[in-house]
Fold these 4 entries.
Entry 1:
Amino acid sequence: MSEKQKNATAYWKENLKYLIILLSIWFLVSYGAGILFREALNEIRLGGFKLGFWFAQQGSIYVFVILIFVYVRLMNKLDKKYGYDE
Amino acid sequence: MSVQLWTWILVGITFTLYFGIAIWARAGSTKEFYVAGGGVSPLANGMATAADWMSAASFISMAGIISFAGYDGSVYLMGWTGGYVLLALLLAPYLRKFGKFTVPDFIGDRYYSNTARTVAVICALIVSFTYVAGQMRGVGIVFSQFLQVDINIGVIIGMAVVLVFAFLGGMKGITYTQVAQYCVLIFAFMVPAIFISFQMTGNPIPQIGMGAKLEGGAFLLDKLDALHTQLGFNEYTSGTKSTWDVFAITLALMAGTAGLPHVIVRFFTVPKVKDARKSAGLALLFIAILYTTAPAIAVFARTNLIETVDNKAYKEIPQWFKNWEDTGLIAWADKNSDGKIQYVAGSALEGKKPAFTDARGANGERLISNANNSSNELYVDRDIMVLANPEIANLPNWVIALVAAGGLAAALSTAAGLLLVISTSISHDLIKKQIKPDISEKGELMAARIAILFAIIIAGIFGIYPPGFVAAVVALAFGLAAASFFPAIILGIFDKRMNSKGAIAGMIVGITLMLFYMIRYKTGLIGVMDARPASEWWFGTSPEGFGTIAMIVNIIVSVVVSRMTSPPPESVQEMVESIRIPSGAGEAGSH
């Protein structure tokens, strides 16, 4: 395998690692907190909100936005590290 | 000034703006026409994507649906935003690196097969037409309500307006018009929400006001839950759908969002891979402003509605109630003859819509002939919640007119984006890539413009003569996209071993299964069979959620078939490796 290919493979592996972490959070806040575990979370209150309901109608959306911007930052750094930025 | 005058002024100003932009941003080349020349900044692209995405349905119907569905409405909120995470992380950067014009371009090249390209074009056309048919109807409804014209004339005005900016500017014109439309629609959505939030809870931020205390000291949501229980509805914050169905619908909407061709094509318009990631983030940020406000509006409107009408004498009801009654979107039958409106759980009518007679009742209400004998006396159309909200809350006339301008911006921007995808599919994917490869750029541009003209006419006909199933089908466009494109694109990027036979088999099985389920359980086939009842759904999955199952079947079929047949050629494997690396994206369409 050439240097260039090794570099590309290492970059792809780190990229996949980020994807798995970020998508796990994506799944947990929406399908987890907002749907599967909402009954349990509804016992907890956040001001006037039941927590499960809040995740389903507000919280998950905030986390989605943050997730994408975190991804942008991580990937920009990763591009630099492997010399793919332009 | 009257609402009517304000509406004409605001609609006039915004339309002048849109036309000005369309003329300024005329497209001269196919590259400008298809992907705006690939030079749109991430910020502008983010706004344009948001406007493209938020249709009349998001603007007008969504808050109303949530208002009546409570927790169940969460499927739309999470589904239509969470899809952007998938788009940003799994699709946009790679498709931008690939750097062609359309989704069928990617499928055709990645799967080195014109059959794959054709299947993708057909899927794109099915998805886009089901979606756009509903939009044109929406355009017609908004025009007719605010300009007081017939609904069909509304559709025709809408067609003419869309034609001008899509025809002249292509993607470039549409993109910059959509930036303006985003600003108009978000302003129009937020102003009444802020007013009402402040009025009800003393907090001007709707997202916080929704969870705040009312003047009396009780939390707004607790009060609404109590009102719901008292009137026999399910608790607002609990909902009625099964957990599995909520899960399935949310997933189908998310994957569908990420697989909609008119959304994906947006990420071909920015200069670099880096910009594609960033503009997906910005798009979701701009969308999230509306999507986190909508559930707040839903709660305010629901509480206001119940408090204003329940057990109140019809004679003392505010004027807005009677105005909407005149348009047929509210109906009341005084079943127990006490002159008061009783609003409790259950339908007030036989059938779905009120059948008005020409007569007036003892209290001056419009009589209906199809009242049933349940104790609920009130029919309210869900679509009026956003439109009537400013009136219910007694806001100034200019705010009510602003909502009209916003609704029009939302409907037009989405229709224009969709029509462009349809015309691109025809002129680029079919004519240039398959029928007549030696067509000149000028010829292709001409073909694109002719295709858009036909697409608008067909969409307009759907809008004027809506087949009964259109409304039902719009929500299913997501299931169709999830069942066809989404797996083919994801596998094309993340599974190097995926070959043409696997992807084609997967797409065909996926979309056929989805169409079958949709026809069997949702729309029926006119003259042949009626839709089967919910008790026969597979695993209790609604047709809206079935996209999830069809998508999983697509993935399984693709993987199994690809592993049983030969791997893709070396050149394709190299291409997959190259799209996984962000540098050297070049300009879109440089082939």
Entry 2:
Amino acid sequence: MTPDQVSGVFDFGEGFIEGTIGAALVALWLLAVALYMARPYMARNVHKFTLRLGADLWWMIYVALRDIFLIQVFLGSFIFFYPDVVSGRDLPITGGLAAVCAFAVLVMKLIKGDQDLRWFRVQVLLLGLGATLYVVPYMLGVQVTAIGTDTANQLASLLVSSKNPDVALWLCYLSSALVGILGAIAVIYNLRQTARRTYLDREKETAR
Amino acid sequence: MTADQLANALTNGASGWLVLSIAAILPMLWSFAMIMHFARPYVIRMLQSLTLRFGGDVWWLSYVLIRDALLTIVLAMSVIMLMPNLYIGLGLPLTGPLAVVVLLWALIVKLLRDADDDPAAFRLVSVLLVIASVLYIVPQIYGLEAADQVQWLDQYGLGWIPGALSAASGDPPVVNALAWPILTLSLVLFGLTAAAIFLRFVYRLGRVSVPAPDAGTSEAASSEVRA
């Protein structure tokens, strides 16, 4: 091995990690959607506890797990905002848009919560859209690159970011811009909330 | 190749890989920290839905713990931006050192004022965090992580962006004209801020008691300050 070849070892490490994140995101997306859809089951179980402590803990753990998984999906999808990674690795071409869906759900939860059925429905629809935008191109694009048939090659050239870099890079920049806009909305919402009065005041009012 | 040459190549390669991996992970950690910070209204809404004070306390302390730990971890990992060999040598995000300084200021505002109860302090911390995250995330993604896209960006006349957002770029690397001034300014500001907060703490030690929510913790807080 020559010193020049050493960089190849670390390029392999980077590629391996990014490929693993890409594969793990399939499971994370499915888990996030599953936990969202488990809400009726969780709510049913809350009423079976004989202690309020048990019910509170059950609900708290469910909400925390569900939200943390969604945040992890978004954070893992950050690789789709890196132009070099998107154009250099075999990743689902619409992964960045899926990340936008996950982030939109988070912003919606912040602003509207999930008590309102109408907004909860919108969140579920967005999650479903995000999961579809991620899982479909992953299964039909990234996972068929080694098959070698004409159909598989055509699908891969359409759905895999490194094989369709022009579209992939546009989607990459578009996704990061959309996430930036959604982030700005979340920041403005927070600042406007605190501009009126403190949260503690509101809590005291609620307690009264 | 001798054993020494191989060891040097592996050591340099591994350290570069580690630093660049930290730099690549930091936007995710930044986003996580920002999500936790700005999730406050949602967390409070959930807090009000809990029926027991015990549940509420567990929920709130977990939230505060994760939120503040994330900010501290981001600061600790971002310190690599202040190391000249790494910042200039590896061409880290151009405004990364300034992001560290602004993040330090945000944490100091949290230390000096109650950002959880004082809306003005919360707004100040929020604005500082937004500035710091933009100073880090934008040059990292559109500079370092887009270094191979110069040709593609050139089609739209934007090929200069990755180089302009990195401390050093190209092969052989050319140091950005703004890199040294930014690093020097950041080191000075970081040092002055750290020294000021340390001196303030030492000066006030034993002079001002810390208000605490109840008698038990009040005693503990006062004795800690007086010690």
Entry 3:
Amino acid sequence: MRETLAIAGVTIREVLRRKLQVNLLFFGAALVLASHLVGSLTLGERYRILADMGLTSMQLIGLLVAVFVGSSLVAGDMERRVLQPVLAKPVPRGGYVVGRYLGLAVVLLLNLAVMAVLLGLVLALDAGGLKPLGPPYLGAVGLLGVQFLVVGSVSVLFSSVSSATLAAVFSMAVAIAGQMTGEIRALWKGGATWIPQLIWYLVPNLSALNANESLVYGTAPSTQAWLAAAYGLCYAAAALALAVLAFERRDLR
Amino acid sequence: MRIVRFVQVAVFAGLALATGQLARRLDTGQLRPYDVGIVPSAPTLRWLSLGHPMLAANLLWLRAVQYIGDPRADQRGWDKLYPLVDTLTELDPGHGYAYQVAGTLLSTYDKVAESNAILEKGARALPDRYILPHLRAFNAFYYDDDWVTAGKWAEIAARSKGAPAHARHYALAYYVKGRRADAAVDYLEQILSEARDPETRAAVEAQLKQALLERDAARLDDAAGRWRARYVIGPLAIGQLVSEGLVDRIPPDPFGGELYVDDEGRVRSTANAFRFSKPEPNQVRPRAQGDGGRRSP
């Protein structure tokens, strides 16, 4: 356990120093602030534009960090040949993967917190008070956090079984497909074949973790949203368990 | 060496000139009023938005705002406003302000059928948004001269959660002017049965009395009209309508006074002189550029 936490600590420091992470976070902050300008273009309904664009910007940046940083964590260590010296020490392979993921998860949540504070400031300034920062806002940010954890775990899974580039491509494809699960469900309900049904269960249902509507209309997260959060955490844990299983069996020579 | 430098400068100057020429051509595009080429269908946008239909709706809304706000919009026309707002409200049916703005503008620019369609869609999607059926009622009486339809929509508006108290008065007025005071009576009786607080009850009771007066007085107005057709003037007393066999009886004045026929042949109450005026036939001005055929005041 101590080794795992040590690896998580190293991962946090390593990721926070990466140019990609810093640039994306900076870009995310700029996008969130830009939603303030975009909001000024609308005719009425300013809050709707600010909230929707701001939250989507946070999601975009968070998912990009989860995909690109997450896919390079394990596979990058293998490509740079720094994995073997680590595993030569009394560190179990499973502990190594979990530690890498925990480090990534902390960074993703830190990024989310920074962007959430910025968006909160924009919304509060626009409303002239703290009213927009109630349960709908906190719920939307919380669900976004779960979404990042899910995509992060998928990236670490692919990173554990393939190269960094392939892992990034696969993770990005899963992240995009996960946003469209609502449409896939519609196909399935339309009496299509078993394929959409299979995709529905395999691909993480990220669309259930989008709370833009609840934020825009100021409704507190529903029971379904909490169910989706529990589902997301289970999915992330399952993907991580699969990553550990796959990495335990991987030939590192 | 000099020749090489000369060639480099010449190439740079040529490219700069070409870029400038192209930039000037780009400017000509901006001289046209802002227009929307193609409005993709809602299902297409739903897929393209990668699970973010609300974001797609908001981006469409920003385009609609550009489209609406162009000062030269009259030169361009308003053909794309309905498809834009129809699509964005398919993606986000809760966008109440989009229905409201499009409903108002489309009717103003001579697209009353499209305005009605978007307002009716909005009223179905957002039953608590009072303004949408209210605007639909306005279209019905103002553009279509259809007072009964106006009354029906005003009734829907008055029943919505956020409706102001005076919304009932619109429904009453439209029904009366559409010669359907009986519908107003039914509606107000139902509202009265549901009213719990004394203030609302008092207000509805007053409106119900007016509706009853209008219903009974309309029948007596017709009888007085037939009297005047026979005798040119009068009747001097309202009871003459009974003695002449034009009505069975004179109903009681809902306000507690007496009914009488005024000099213009309209039946009124001694306790409440107010009657809704009869609707004028629709007078639509010839359509000028940018003027949606508004009725003259």
Entry 4:
Amino acid sequence: MAEYAHPDMLASTAWAAEHSKDANVRLVEVDVDTTAYEQGHAPGAIAWNWSTQLSDGRTRDIVSKAALEKLLGESGIDTNTIVLLYGDNNNWFAAWALWQLKIYGHKDVRLVNGGRKKWLEEGRELTADVPAVTPKSYTAGAPDWSLRAYLSDVQKASAAKAASLVDVRSPAEYSGEIIAPPGLPETAQRGGHIPSAASIPWGQACNDDGTFKSADDLKALYGGKGVDASKPAIAYCRIGERSSHTWFVLKYLLGINDVKNYDGSWTEWGNLVGAPIEK
Amino acid sequence: MTVNVTDYTRRIEEFEGWQMGVTTYRLGEKWWCVVDNVSPGARLCSHAADSSAAAESHAVGVAKRLLGRTRRFPSTAVVC
């Protein structure tokens, strides 16, 4: 039975519950529903708002180095802190946060396997208490842009079939039957997928409780759909957060070295004049 | 003060061809209902109330309104 390539990138809910108040650990909840934290959160957890604190407020971009340093410092995190990330929506935005922390070189950041869903399902303790945090000084590394795909990277990869392009959206989004997840704003002019992309919905990497499938099952899943572990891979979705989840799987669980998250995703490609689209 | 989630349930319902995941649980004195769209699993809405029925009724009602607005495009459709 194969092991994950980097099992240290995951923490169980049990481990998180036991260590969330350790001096060198910071548990952070990152939700799409920012009221979820107020409803009740894991004891010791603080909250980050993915749209205001992990995104640039003016230009469509990820958080800047300076803004991340401020956020981490105010969160009581230094470069030696173990950051544990979890959240609602199947850990999508927790994975989005992890991707950005890795871009800026944070050494030890982990996803709580199963996220908030598993925490609730297990009947674990929740609290409305916000922990007191002693601010620290944080200096981020120079950004590692090799973790991020831009439009030009994806155009080349699609045309030359030089990378495994993974569309992690639902089958209905992939086919163009719908432009966005049911019930959500469309945000793109056209539906379909990027030519040569394989449809591997993010959820196929998870068990019913939200935890990741075994390494063997993941290998069979992605290999069976044409993801070549010896080639670069690029994951995309609609805005880059579901694809962060798959980026995490490909890079840290399957150990594919060159994996990028295309955060422009379908809201960029599907709005681009003249971009080729397959259905 | 900490509380534990109790009475956690999840079921799938269908509405106009869309699947909804309806998750309900009790947290202290309140019942919460969170509805997602199953495929891909994005959260649509949530609501808290004094009973599970009230929480679900409100949340499912909002979710149905959102799902009912989803446009479908057959493969030959021209999008305007």
